[in-house]
Each structure stands twice: as structure tokens, then as C-alpha cells.
Amino acid sequence: MQKRTKILITCCSLAIGSCLVYVGYRQLTANDSSLLKNIPFIQSDKEKESAFKIKKDPQIPLIQEQLANEQLVEKKELMAKGIQLFQHKPKTAEDLYTCYIDVPVVLQAKFLSVIFYTEEGKQAQEVPAKQIGAHTFVMQTDFFKKQSYRQAIVLMTKDGNYQWQNIDATIEFSQTAHSMPLLAKQLPTKQKKEIPANLLNKHRLHQLIQAAQNQNWRERWQQQQIGFERSDNIEAAVFDYSAIDDGKFSCRLQLASLPPVGQSYRLAIWRKNSGLADLHQYPFKQIGSRDFVANFNNRAHDNYAEGSFISYLLANAAGHVSSKVVQLNRQLFIPKYILKVQRFELIPQNIAQGLYQIQLVLNKNERVKSVDFDVWTKHKGKDDAVNYVTNTLVDNNIWQQTIDVRKVHFDDVNLTIKASVDLDLTGRKEMETMQTTIEKQTQPIYVNHRGKQQFAPENSIPAFKQANYEAIETDIHLTADKKWVIMHDGSLNRTTNGSGEISQFLAQQLLSYHLKGTGEQQYAIQELRIPSIEDYLAICQAKGKIPIIEVKTSAFDEVAYRNLIELVRSYQFAHTVRFISFHYQVLKELKKMMPEASVMYLSKDLNQQVINQTKKLGSRAGVNVHWQALNQANVQLAHQAGLQVGAWTVPFDQFSKMTYLGVDYITTNDA
């Protein structure tokens, strides 16, 4: 291996505290050597200097053994990526702080300055450097005497565009001072303290400082070209790091001549801290006569591992199982995966109908499998909290979900929305929470009373299936064996071909009877069986209807009601169901057992006593009153108390009046 010279950084002490410095290396040219030979500390301490000479990589024999390599060829690096920076403390109080910066040729720096700033980023100084060699710049300043600066950034222009490089290795300064005879010949005794106006751009400085504080990893260049000797038939390899933030990069090989038939190439990569146990190989795919490309993804490395990786190029000749190892890019650095919210908002779609759209835009969507939106109102206990999940991107970068606040979040106009993401192999990560205010919806929810009974017997399966409004109202009773069945009356007499009280029958016995009424001749007997609560909930679920369930039973049986609640929850109606009843105590017990449910107290009148009593039911409560008892004054009183107002058995010609009064539900027998 060809020997290289390392630049030794001597540590000097300053009262200002420590500066952060990133130290790189490259082979010194003759010009560089002549330039640096007059600097005393570089020529001193030969033993320490020898410690920086390149040694053989101890991993190479392990690779050779692991992959059964026939031959091991070690290549010199043509270009080191790092910027060298070494500093000198002033010899006296009148001398200047001096900093040499050595820049790789590949960066083609036309201008360079050093930015010093306080750790919190409130103050910054930019000092231009002077080019004194093919790759070397020097900067001098005395502002350290007045301010303590802890970090620095090297700023370069390449074809007029600014780029920045973090300086991220701590240097401690000693008391030793060194004279600078070389600089004395090339620079004035002191630079002006004032920075030229065209160099100091506060907005640009602020952006650079923020970028440095947010990213604690070394700057990587979008493309880096590495050459090989002709004996390998590899002319160059180009690395594309544009997706490195997502743990991805690609490598393109350019061959000097056409490859032998059957020749193949692979990248062998493993995480430095994990060793060869993390070894994965990535094949090169031929994309041209002399061009190959390989794509790397850190997903397979300890579930998106970050940090330092080691890579080698493997070449396989036709018919050979063993590989030839060529050092390609020994050190790779995968930065921390940072996911940020760029936009998060609630957009009205139809305010009158209570339709809104949640939109979330992230800085990247790589690894994001789905997005969760948890939505609730401000009421204590989040009893209306609903989780919405979307796994589809709109326009390639928007996660969105439509919500209907009339169905669920009707209790308040103040919404809280929390966005979380489900990341591949990582799991759930909370992103952001917002508080927002929605407008009061003005359009009531229309309800089919006992289904669409103009075309089928009331409370029948055909009546439910033909319902054309947003909600379906029904009535439930308990059988002798504590099963819930659908029926308005407490007996079979009026609406079936049987007779007797429902509470005297077992649920199985009721299957012997069928419903009668409007249009019964059009339906099969099986369709007209007495429905169970499961039949009703299944139809509501299939048709996307809001279930409004009137509990007819006055006696409270805890086991039976717990079964009812479990059924409602199992059909995903926990937050949209409305339990209504003339029996206040039943609603009170239901609300205790199912806090997230909505309850509405049925009444033939709406007065202050009814309002006060209903308010005691807690959040998500309302009154459901005969339409003729409603007027603008009592509807307004109920709304001011935080209650919703429903009107039942409203004829078609009174719809507009009820809407004008501001009722929230219109239950009707009319189509």
C-alpha cells in the first residue's frame, strides 16, 4: 500500500472554549509540502506523526476468509473526502488567530470563508479566507478576544453556489504559541474587523447555522467519483447519495472495456459496529455494454440501522464461485432517519353536512406504511375519540382522511387531531397534534323512522334495506331469555301473525312468526321474520347508516345491557350509535356503562326541566321531542345547554321549518 502523510493537529488552548473541527486527509502534493514545511509544529514530534500513517485494514483477512476469495487486491484512494483544518493560537495579544483550511480538489472551491457562531446560534461571524496554494486557504481574525464561539462551519462556493460543511471534532488548545513566518509575507498584519457587506448575509448565515444544529453528521456530497487501476477493468465508480437520508444509495460502475462473458460484480456491505454478522451482498445489474448499477437499502441491516458502514466490491469471473475483493468505498455513513411534518390541517369540504378533510404532508414518505388520525373534542375523557387510518397517498405526497363531524364529533366545535405514522419495521410514531375549530353544521340528519315503512312492514329487514336517509331508527325489546329483538310494540298482536307479550317468548320461538304490514306480499316469509339486533346492526354497517336505537324496556338488566353494548361495539358503532328512550334511568345506566355512546331523552315537550334533567346525562347527550312541541326559543335553550335536539315523526311539509329552527335530527315516516 502506498504510504500517505497525515496532518497532525496540534492542540492549543484559548480562553474562548473549544472549537469543533472535522479532520480529513489526502495525499500531500509537492506544492503542499513546500507550503507547510515552514510551520514548526508540523515538523516536530515524528513519532506522533507516524501514528497517522495508513495501516492495513484488519477486516480484509476476515472478508477473504468469509467469502473464500482467491485473490486480495488493495487499492489506494484517489481522493479523500475530508477537509483539513488546523489552527494556531496568537503568540501575543496583538497577533491574530490563524486557521489553515485544505480543500479536496473535487470540491473546486473558488471562495471560502469560516463562520463562527455561538452554540445557541444567536450571534455569528463570517471571516473570508485567502487562497495561498492550489488547495489551501488561510483565515486570520482577532474577534475571539471579545466573544466566545464554540462551533464553526466552512463555507465554500462552487460555480457561485454556497455549500456548507460541518466541523465536528473537538480540539483542545494548549498554551504553546508558534510564529507564522510564511503568513507574514503574504497577508497584512491585521485584517479589518468589519466583514465586507457582500460576504455577510444574515439570512444565509441563519439558514446554515440552523442546518448545522439540526444535523450532527458529516456533510456528504451528492456524487463522489472513485477511480481504479486499469488492471481491474474498472474505469470509475460513481456513488449517488441523493437518497442517503432514507438509508439508500446507488453505485454505478463504468468499465474501461467490455466485460468478459459471465463476469459479475457485487457490493459487500455491513454495519461497522455489527461486524460480518451483518454482511449483505448487493448485485450489480448491467444497464449498458460497460455500465453496471447496484442499489443499497439499509432495511436489511438491523431494521434500518444507521451510522458507519463498510463496503467492498466483489468481482466474480465466469465459472468461479470465489470472488476477488477490491476496496471500493470503505466508510459509508447512514444518517439518522428524520421524519418531519411539513403541513397538517383540517380543510372544510361541506360545512353544512359536517364534512371535513384532514391532510398531512411529511418531508418524506419512505418507510411510512400508514397514517393514523385520532380525533376528539375537548370534553373530559375523550369519550368521542375516534381513530381513522389511511394507507393511501394522494398526489404522491398527501395523506388525507375525510371525517363526518355530524356522525361523531357533534358535541363541540373545538377539535383535537393527533397524527401518528406506522413505520416499516419500527412501529407507531406520534408526529403532531393540532387544535382547531369547526363551524356549526346547519343541515340536520334525516332519519328513517322504523326503516322505510312506505314500501315494507315497519321494523322489517326489507324496510331497513330500503332506507334512504342517513340514519335508521328502530325499537328493541328483551325476550324471556334476555335476547334483544326488533319490535315497536311490547306484543306481537299488531305487527305480526302471532299474539302475546314479547317478554314471554324465547328468541328461538319468535322465529315461528313473521311481520305483516305494507307490501308484505312482495317479500318471502324468511325476509319478514322478526329481526334480531344483529340483523339491524349488520344492515346499518353495510349501508353506512347511523343506528338510532330506542330502548323500550324500562327494567334494567345489567347482563342484557352489557351484551347490547358489546354487540354495538363489535359492529364499529361505539361512537356513532344514538340510544334514545323515554326511560331516563335506562339512559343514565347505559351512559355509565358506555361513556362514548350518545344518548337522547325522548319527550313530548321541551322545557327547562327536561333540559336540566337531560344535561345531567353528561357529554354527547340530547333531547328528542315531538316536532309540534318545538319552537325557536326552546331549541335555542337546549343548544345553549350543550344538548342536541331531535324532532320525531316530522311530516315532509314541515322539514324546512325544523331546519329553520336549527334541529339536529329530523325523524320521519315520509320518504
From TrEMBL:
| Protein name from the UniProt record | GP-PDE domain-containing protein
Any one GO molecular function term: phosphoric diester hydrolase activity
Q: Tell me where on the tree of life, at the top rank, the source sits.
A: Bacteria
Organism equals: Enterococcus columbae DSM 7374 = ATCC 51263
* Lineage, highest ranks first: Bacteria, Bacillati, Bacillota, Bacilli, Lactobacillales
Q: Which keywords label this protein?
A: Membrane, Transmembrane, Transmembrane helix
InterPro entries, per database record = GP_PDE_dom, PLC-like_Pdiesterase_TIM-brl
User: Which GO terms are recorded in the biological process aspect for this UniProt protein?
Assistant: lipid metabolic process
Q: Note the PANTHER family from the entry.
A: GLYCEROPHOSPHODIESTER PHOSPHODIESTERASE, CYTOPLASMIC, GLYCEROPHOSPHORYL DIESTER PHOSPHODIESTERASE
Give start and end of each GP-PDE domain: 444-671
Per the record's keyword annotation, is Transmembrane included, yes or no? yes
**Which ranges does the record mark as transmembrane?**
7-25
